[in-house]
Every structure is written in C-alpha cells, then in structure tokens.
Amino acid sequence: MFKFLSCFLMFFFFFPSSVFASTESGVPQLTSSPIGYSCLILFIVAYAIVMLEELVKLRKSKPVLLAAGLIWAIIGYVYQQYGEMEVAKQAFEHNLLEYSELLLFLLVAMTYINAMEERRLFDSMRSWMVSKGFGYRPLYWITGLLAFFISPVADNLTTALLMCAIIMKVGEDNRKFINLCCINIVIAANAGGAFSPFGDITTLMVWQAEKTSFFQFFDLFLPSAVNYFVPAIIMFFFLPKGVPESTAEHVSAKRGAKRIIALFLLTICTAVSFHTAFGFPPVVGMMMGLGYLQMFGFFLRKTFNGYVEKKTAQAKANNDEATLKRLGSVVPFDVFQRISHAEWDTLLFFYGVVMCVGGLSLLGYLELVSHCLYTQWDPLWANSFIGILSAIVDNIPVMYAVLTMDPVMPTGHWLLVTLTAGVGGSLLSIGSAAGVALMGAARGRYTFLSHLKWTPVILLGYIASIAVHMWLNYDLF
C-alpha cells in the first residue's frame, strides 16, 4: 500500500498540467482526465476496504479519511494551477458545514442513547422479557415489533443490537431461531428507521436538506410496515415451536432512566420546533437538548450522596443484602463520559464519505450520474435502483450522492428514495449497519449466506412497499 501511494503521489505532482481541459470559466473539467480517474479509483479502493472491514480488521473510518485527504489534495493542486482556488475552498467549506451539522446532531442523539444504556434501561427491558418465559414464536414477533417501533427514535444499529442481545440470551442452543430472528430484526430496524428523521442517518440527511417536512416522513409508515410484515409473515412459518429455557435475572434501571427518556423526547420536540418555527437547522434544538441532559446530570451528581445514604439506610432496615451490594457499585452520572462513548468510528467514517463524495461532485462525476439516472431513466426506476444499490454500498454515501446531485423531483419521489435507501439495505446482511453488527454479535449463527437465502422473500417486501407508497401517497407525485 505504501509503495502504491508513493508512486501515485509522484505521478500526481509531476504530471503536466497541460493535459487538463478547462471550461470557459477557467474551472478544470476533469471527469475524463487521468487525475479525475485517479480520484475515482481512490474512492473505490477505499470503499472496497470498508466493505472488507470484518476480514481485514481495519476500522472503516481509516481508509475513507485517507482517501478524502488525498482527493482534496489533488483538487487543491489542480485548482491552484488554474487560479480557481477560491472555488475549491468554497466547495470544501460547504461540505464541511453540512457534515458539522450532522455530526453535532448525531453526537447528541448517541449521547442520549448511551445515557439510557448507562442507566441500564435496555438491560432492564431485556431482563423483563427473559423472565416472562415467552416461546420462540412470540419472541420473534416481540423483538421484531420492538425493533420496528424503537428504531424511529433510537438508531437502527442500537435497536438491532438490543434485540439481538435478547434472542441470544433466550435462544442460545437454537441456531435456526437465532438466524431467523436476526434477519427479522434487521428488516424491522431498517423499515422502522425509514419513516422517521431520527431513524437513520439517511432520513436525517433528507430532513436537514429540507427535501420534505418533519411530519411528511410519517407518510412512509404504512409502506415501511408492509416492507417489514411481508417477509416477517413468510419467515414465521419456518420458525421452531416450543419455549426456550430461560434464567431468572432481575435487572432494575438506575435512578433517572425514565426522566432521561422524557428529556430525549423533549429534545426531539425542541429540534423540530427550531426548524419549523424559525427555519434554523435542527441541530440548534439538539444542542439545546444536550444542555437539558447536562443540567439533569448535574442534578444527579449533586443529589447522589444523599440518595445513596437514604437507600442504604432503607436496605439495612429491611436486611436487603442484594440492594446493599448493588448500591456499593453505583457511580455518579457523567455526561461527558457518555459523549466519549459515542460511535466515533461511524462519525469519522461519515466525514470521510461526505468529503470524498463532495470532491467527486466538484470534479463533475455526480452530475454525470445524475444525468444518467434522473434524465434518461424514469424517477421511479432510478429511485428503486438506489435502494438496491444501497444493499451493496452503504446507504450513507448513496443518499449523500443523491442529495448532492439534487435532481428536480416532487416530494413523493424524495420520500420514495428515502424509503428505498432505508429499506434496501435489508436485501443483504452487509447492506446496513444493523446487519453488519448482528453478523458480529451472532457470529456463526447469522451469516451473509444465511441472510442471502431469504433475499427473494425480502425483495417481495421491498417491491410491495414501493407499490403501497405509489398508491397511498399518489397526491405527492
């Protein structure tokens, strides 16, 4: 790899600038030049390494960060040769601003989810489900429906991991049950995230780009539900019967868990209000919501000693050894520690993708793709293809590319591409963050090939969801 980069950089710096064709405005037209092809190859190679993350054991942010730096170094050099450096700077700053808004938004959302996890909210939910002794088939529907309805608020990755932890806990010895449940959870989490601005990074991107309003996302509820239920009903008949053995494990949520949920909902309302009432980016409301959590964290810390003393006295009076033991491990709530536990690899990966795609857009490649997809193709077929493409390539760069192309489409088609980019990743296990995470969490039980076996069934749900959207939201087209 080092030799390749060295040769590439020597080629780049000593390549004669006379080969660049320029437009009338003096801005280089590089889509058909060796430099343009080199940038495209850099992105493709970087993304190929991302897709092989599990094999090469290299975090996905690293190759795209390197590729982004090299692409913009090339752009800077070339534009400087033509005296158009200001154009390149403005393009870079535009992409950086878009990324910064999304970064802060996602950081707040991840902090709230991490706070709920630290308060053991998800552990208590899992404990309750395990203790009820549900059978395989009820658990299949419970975990699937919970994934569908939690993912619009939490992200689909967190939701999928939570539900996977539940089925792994209760179905350790039943490979078929775990496999079908994992597929069901991936489909449900992706479908649930498609009808909410908070369900996935792609829906958030569409909302931030103001291609549709906050409440118009809910027009995708029924198409998303169809996308989930069609394959779920078919797979249900292949589930094993019976009740798994379960171990009694009582887990209680820590102090303040329910109030953090309320603050998270208040934060979402604040973000929506700032956007609808004043036209500010939703990130303004989200950062204010982080202030809610910090003030509540301050309250928990200031009252921590008094709370522990009170509970310890009550436990001693009742000879409650279990509570005394639990109180001995209780620690104060720290907001900044929750921030540090955010998925920084994902956030940095997103930076690399945004900058790579932004660089390729400046070089003119997205304009070419846009012309092919949205001029020569009908928008219905173009947006349906985007969903299938997102099963192979991560839906984040796919959606960012579409938004950067900015084709002229009615709201119905923007909702359609939001739907397809969100649920299309369910077609393959590598098509979404939820699927990739579950292959690791249920290693050996849920695999690429075991998911691929059910791809035709999932494709039926994909087609049905598009048909329902076209019929139900016909007035938006």
**SSE order in H/E notation?**
HEEHHHHHHHHHHHHHHHHHHHHHHH
Shape field: globular
Q: How many β strands by DSSP?
A: 2
Oligomer: single chain
Radius of gyration: 24 Å
Give the strand line-up of the largest sheet: 1-2
First-to-last CA distance: 48 Å
Please outline the major beta sheet.
2 strands, antiparallel
Number of helices: 24
Please state the structural category. Answer: mainly alpha
- Classify the beta-strand content into a percent band: under 5%
- Estimated helix fraction: over 70%
Please mark out the parts with pLDDT under 50 across 5 or more consecutive residues, or reply none. Answer: 1-25
Global mean pLDDT: 81
GO molecular function: antiporter activity
Domain Citrate transporter-like: 49-422
Transmembrane segments: 31-52, 64-82, 139-168, 220-239, 260-280, 348-368, 380-402, 414-442, 454-472
Main location: membrane
Provide a quick synopsis of the model.
Pfam families: CitMHS. Residues 49-422 form the Citrate transporter-like domain. With 477 residues, the protein is mainly alpha-helical.
